[in-house]
Write a structure and sequence with these properties.
Low-confidence stretches of chain C: none
Helix content of chain C: 25-40%
Strand content of chain C: 15-25%
Number of helices of chain A: 2
Order of helices and strands of chain A: HH
Number of domains of chain C: 1
Oligomer: heterotrimer
Shape of chain A: elongated
Number of strands of chain C: 13
Distance between the termini of chain C: 62 Å
Structural class of chain C: alpha/beta
Largest interface: B-C, 59 and 49 residues
Chains: A mainly alpha (about 45), B mainly alpha (about 425), C alpha/beta (about 375)
Mean pLDDT of chain C: 94
Largest sheet of chain A: none
CATH topology of chain C: Aminopeptidase
Low-confidence stretches of chain A: none
Number of helices of chain C: 9
Number of strands of chain A: 0
Number of domains of chain A: 1
């Protein structure tokens, strides 16, 4: 189950990255970048 | 309040709020960014520097929540894109249009549904809220009333079972399991939802002749592009089975967790017979979800820093520092006001101390009532998530027009919540086991 | 004043890349702290202790973050056996500092002493989100050097127990609790041999109690000052007589302590399941710790060590606490002294209230007032 959830976090992270790079408003990009931080740490099981 | 008590924690609290307000209003920064900035300021002022570990750790308080919201949003976009929500709505309108009372109530239930499933008023506003808005407007309900009904319905949905995040937050603070809340939460929300349906929707639907029949028929025909069959309904059916099964028979059903349940249900759309682009749905879902996910990250940092610098203790002990007869007033005023930052934050920072102050009452009912009142935080500007998104879906530029209409129902909601606490002893035998 | 000023640069692929690099940089910085939490604090045991690992009693824990040191010392004379378990909740430091002082100082003359100072070893490997806990606390020794110990989280490491269920079902009873309790060692007893990490750890401790035929076992905790069960002993019905005698004795020495019977219908806790599923006499003890309470003000290492807090002063004046409170607060040395004195008092009762053959004698430990006056650092060994 942990692996499946890592997969889900990976999927969400990819979608967030896609939004980050497609976004034209800088501050909305900052919002997306904020969300990247915990997702990346959990994907790598560091926190 | 004495100066010794106020300094310096009270000052930190004011500085954090001022920083947030400046960022959000003067600089028009997204709420997530303004919130993060005020967290950093709170840490700097208290001499902690920029505590990267604390800021990042604070975000993890909402990691599971953002996974739920993200996956729920994907589910919602998917069922919209295959035409399921529209088909259900038009079926409902055709079937119940001549029964305005049933329709008013049905629409209210539809608005609440995504909030009930996801625990997020935003999800409710932006999905079924967006769906019923044009219908209600077409049937002659004015913008302000439609928007208010959606905002309030979304909040009642967020508080209604099966998923109620504020109650989980409050319960977590006093080691109270999230068990036995279904009936009390329905008791807290359903009468209020019915009331809102009756005052904001029903009077306009009952007026005959005011409706543009041809326009409505065209709209309904457009909405029925995908016929409502069981195949089309499959994603929803799957979600009901997965969630209901786990709630009712936890010994038999695997504990998949909400994120996985939403994704499996979304995947069932493959069998609906409709063509849609899953990647496109998911990306749009994430675009809609991101501001909310970002706000939660900001709130996470904010809560961690206010715990670090003592503002949390200052706020919770100050809210308790009142004569007993004023306790209900303090609950009714301080919790919605704190909701200006976040309704979840209000549940954690004030909900827990209040339930501790009311340990002699029935804990489940007190938790229920506090969560109901905390939900109103989503109407409190500047964040006012429910108000902002409801205004968006009815295309009202000034969301304060919606908020003004919500004032009276919000006061009724507070009174209802306080009444549940005051009469918890009498209500408990009927509502809790 | 014109409030319409907007700082609103255009977002491009380049800004996105910069922001992504920044985000990953912040994650990396934070992770240096997170990663540093995973090594275990080293102890300097008193002479006579043998060091073992819990996996020797339950092999599946081997090479996992759940495995944890077990210190064993036998006296010259035969007698009873006692387990002191600290660190069930690594955010309750008086519990594990008591166990650590016993490992560093105890000299057993009669009976056999077992100490597991870091029971929830995986809870020492992280701190709890939104609790703003310090990651460590340091003690100054008489020679001016310092010893540092971790301050952890109540939960088993989240990455070990993720995803967490929404509802936690205690398997032996079907009792339902909120999902976060699935990570709580003290809701998992008697454990499940092939269960979740939490359940396996609980099972390992049960196996230990059964295989070593432990006569008396302590689970040392702390609780929020505003929580009803605090400065208290919670005892199983088989150990309540012994506990009542110990409480009387402690009261005679000026240490007020409540005695609570272990509720029969609240399952998964050590004071209930240890007694039901083994022959041991279980005792759980709580002291008041402001650094884990919800009403606390500024949260830092000073609060953990000194236990003085203006928010708790005010809460006490408002009548919201379940323990007496004054300017001096609840220093960690005093909380630890309470636990240590209570443990020693229980041991002195064994031969009278249990069986003469179960007597246990331990020397070398500080008296209550000594520890309060000297501080913990004086009683730790130099690195």
């Amino acid at each position: 189950m942990t692996l499946i959830y890592r997969g889900i976090v990976g999927l969400i992270l990819l979608l967030v990255l896609r939004c980050l790079f497609d976004e034209k408003n800088f501050w909305k990009q900052v919002t997306a970048a904020l969300v990247v931080i915990p997702l990346a740490l959990r994907l790598l099981m560091l926190k | 309040m004495t100066w010794e008590w106020f300094w310096p924690e009270g000052f930190y609290a004011l500085a954090m709020i001022a920083c947030f307000a400046f960022g959000a209003f003067a600089l028009k920064l997204p709420i997530a960014v303004a919130m993060s900035a005020s967290a950093v300021v709170g840490a700097l002022l208290a001499g902690f520097g920029i505590p990267v570990r604390h800021l990042v750790e604070g975000m993890f308080g909402y990691l599971d929540t953002i996974l739920i919201i993200a996956c729920a949003m994907i589910f919602m976009k998917t069922v919209q894109d295959i035409g399921l929500t529209e088909a259900v709505a038009s079926w409902g309108i055709r079937k119940f249009r001549r029964q305005p009372l049933l329709l008013s109530i049905g629409v209210m239930f539809l608005i609440m549904l995504p909030g009930m499933l996801t625990g997020s008023s935003t999800a409710a506003c932006l999905t079924t809220g967006a769906l019923v808005a044009p219908i209600l407007l077409k049937l002659g309900v004015p913008k302000a009333q439609t928007g208010s009904a959606i905002a309030l319905g979304a909040i009642y949905g967020m508080i209604a079972p099966p998923v109620d995040i504020p109650v989980m937050i409050i319960g977590g603070g006093i080691d109270m399991p999230y068990v036995g809340f279904a009936l009390p939460l329905l008791f807290a929300t359903v009468p209020l939802a019915l009331l809102v349906a009756l005052i904001f929707i029903y009077p306009w639907l009952r007026r005959r002749g005011a409706v543009d029949e041809a326009g409505l028929e065209a709209e309904l025909a457009r909405m029925e592009r995908a016929p409502l069959t069981f195949r089309l309904f499959l994603p929803f059916a799957a979600l009901i089975v997965l969630m209901g099964g786990e709630q009712l028979f936890p010994e038999l059903f695997p504990s998949l967790g909400m994120p996985l349940q939403f994704l499996i249900a979304s995947a069932c759309a493959i069998f609906s017979g409709q063509k849609w682009n899953p990647l496109d749905s998911a990306v749009r879902a994430m675009n809609d979800a991101l501001p909310v996910l970002g706000i939660l990250m900001g709130v996470g940092m904010f809560v961690q820093v206010m715990t670090l610098n003592g503002v949390r203790g200052f706020v919770s002990v100050s809210a308790l520092d009142i004569p007993p007869w004023l306790l209900y007033v303090s609950i009714g005023v301080s919790i919605p006001l704190f909701g200006a930052i976040s309704s979840f934050g209000a549940a954690s920072v004030l909900g827990v101390p209040f339930i501790l102050a009311l340990l002699d009452r029935d804990q489940i009912l007190v938790g229920t009532a506090l969560a109901l009142i905390a939900g109103l935080g989503d109407l409190m500007p500047p964040t006012a998530l429910a108000g902002i998104f409801a205004a968006q879906v009815v295309e009202e530029k000034n969301y304060f027009r919606i908020l003004v209409k919500c004032v009276v129902p919000a006061i009724v909601t507070v009174l209802w919540g306080v009444a549940i606490i005051a009469w918890s002893g009498k209500l408990a035998p009927f509502l809790t086991r | 004043m014109n409030m319409n000023f907007k700082f609103n640069p255009q977002g491009t692929k380049a800004t996105a890349l910069c922001l992504l690099i920044c985000a990953l940089g912040v994650a990396w910085l934070a992770n240096r702290d997170f990663a540093a939490m995973r090594t275990l604090d080293a102890l300097i045991p008193a002479s006579g202790f043998e060091e073992h690992l819990l996996s020797e009693w339950f092999a599946p824990l081997r090479d996992t973050l759940l495995d944890t040191p077990v210190y064993v010392q036998s006296g010259e004379e035969p007698g009873g056996s006692v387990l002191v378990l600290g660190g069930t909740h690594p955010n309750e430091p008086a519990g594990y500092m008591t166990a650590i002082l016993m490992v560093e100082r105890a000299q057993v003359s009669r009976g056999k002493l077992y100490v597991i100072p870091f029971a929830n070893r995986a809870g020492f490997a992280h701190t709890q989100p939104q609790e703003a806990s310090p990651e460590s606390m340091s003690f100054t020794l008489p020679d001016g050097s310092t010893r540092v110990f971790r301050y952890g989280s109540r939960d088993i490491l989240h990455t070990l127990t993720w995803p967490n269920p929404d509802i936690y079902i205690h398997k032996a009873s079907g009792q339902r609790l909120s999902g976060n309790e699935a990570r709580n060692l003290n809701r998992a007893y008697p454990g499940v041999a092939d269960g979740t990490p939490t359940e396996r750890l609980a099972w390992a401790i049960m196996e230990f109690l059964r295989k070593e035929k432990i006569d008396l076992a302590f689970d040392l905790h702390e609780a929020s000052p505003e929580y009803p069960v605090v400065d208290a002993i919670v005892a199983h019905e088989r150990s309540i007589e012994l506990a009542a005698a110990a409480a009387m004795e402690l009261k005679g020495r000026g240490i007020e302590i409540r005695l609570e019977p272990s509720p029969k219908n609240f399952r998964g806790l050590s004071h209930r399941e240890w007694g039901d599923a083994s022959d041991t006499l279980p005792i759980l003890m709580e002291v008041a710790n402001p650094s884990q309470g919800r009403l606390r003000g500024r949260t830092d290492e000073t609060l953990v060590l000194e236990g003085r807090d203006k928010a708790y002063m005010k809460a006490a004046a408002l009548g919201r606490l379940f323990v007496p409170w004054d300017e001096s607060g609840k220093p960690l040395a005093m909380r630890t002294a309470r636990h240590l004195t209570a443990v020693v008092t229980f041991l002195s009762m064994m031969e009278f209230f249990v069986d003469e053959s179960k007597a246990i004698e331990i020397d070398g430990l500080p008296e209550y007032q000594q520890l309060v006056d000297d501080g913990i650092g004086k009683w730790l060994h130099q690195n």
